[in-house]
Write a structure and sequence with these properties.
The chain is mostly helical. Helix content is 58%, strand content 8%. It contains eleven helices and five strands; from the N terminus they run βαββββαααααααααα. α7 packs antiparallel against α8, α7 packs parallel to α11 and α9 packs parallel to α11.
């Protein structure tokens, strides 16, 4: 047996380790096996070279950042959850309660895609990247508060609510992982609150007129739309986190700029 122990200090100072070796025909790890993991405070792995059992990787602390053999091709290929697992099968009254009719309508209208979501593994709410991703929702809080202080409490409150629900949705997404009814419920509520804020902002834009919309707001709106679209192109792991973080930031800035210009126009 080969025993590997990585200490706290070495893990904190070392770069993330990653190496991939093709598996044997017996579906076991061959040679040095496949090991992908991120830095953690403590981690211990036992690797067995027993010819009868094949090489195995056994995480001592049940850390989700240890990727299984089956995860590797999926992450490298970058396929979305909808492509890998198809239409959700857990849209029931037990999962959605009184929101079930809305959930069924979204599911039907989108062919099952609307209530699927990206698998953000290996990020979790306890990893640095996961926490940074969640922190981008503070832009909604800041923008909503600023609009409220300036006098538009309605749009400001909608923006604040959208930020809170977005935080809850992405927290469950990071915490529970793929194909969970709890995450689908949070996603549905996120659609509702974000949609309300977007509709209000759209009404403001119509009232202002396209010529009166600040150029900066148009730029950030275009940038936000591009980032949101790229989230669906790379709907997995770190690429999704990167583009969706930019969507949070740019959409929050856009909402604030439109709300501020609406305040100025009504005051004048």
């Amino acid at each position: 047996f080969f025993f590997a122990v990585q200490s706290v200090n070495s893990l904190q100072s070392s770069r993330p380790l990653a190496f991939v070796v093709p598996s044997c025909a017996s579906n076991h790890y061959c040679g040095n096996g496949v090991l992908l993991h991120r830095q953690q405070r403590t981690k211990q792995l036992y690797l067995s070279d027993n010819e009868d059992e094949g090489e195995q990787i056994i995480p001592i602390n049940n850390d989700r950042s240890i990727l299984s053999k089956d995860d590797v091709p999926n992450i490298l290929a970058g396929s979305s959850t909808f492509q890998k697992y198809g239409r959700p099968t857990d849209i029931t009254s037990d999962s959605f309660g009184p929101l079930l009719p809305i959930a069924e309508a979204v599911d039907e209208a989108t062919g099952g895609w609307g209530l699927t979501y990206a698998d953000l593994h290996p990020a979790t709410p306890r990893t640095t990247i996961g926490q940074a991703f969640l922190a981008t929702n503070i832009f909604y809080a800041a923008g909503g508060l600023a609009l409220g202080v300036q006098g538009d409490w309605f749009y400001g409150a909608l923006t604040e609510l959208a930020g809170i629900v977005s935080f809850v949705y992405h927290y469950t997404q990071l915490e529970f992982g793929k194909n969970r009814a709890e995450v689908r419920l949070a996603l549905l509520v996120d659609y509702m609150t974000a949609g309300a804020a977007l509709i209000c902002g759209g009404v403001y834009m119509v009232q202002l007129g396209i010529d009166a919309i600040p150029f900066e707001a148009l730029l950030t709106a275009i940038g936000a739309s591009i980032c949101l679209g790229l989230c669906w192109v790379w709907e997995f792991g770190y690429p999704y986190i990167f583009w969706h973080s930019l969507w949070h930031i740019l959409s929050a800035v856009t909402g604030y700029l439109i709300g501020q210009d609406h305040l100025l126009s009504t005051a004048g």
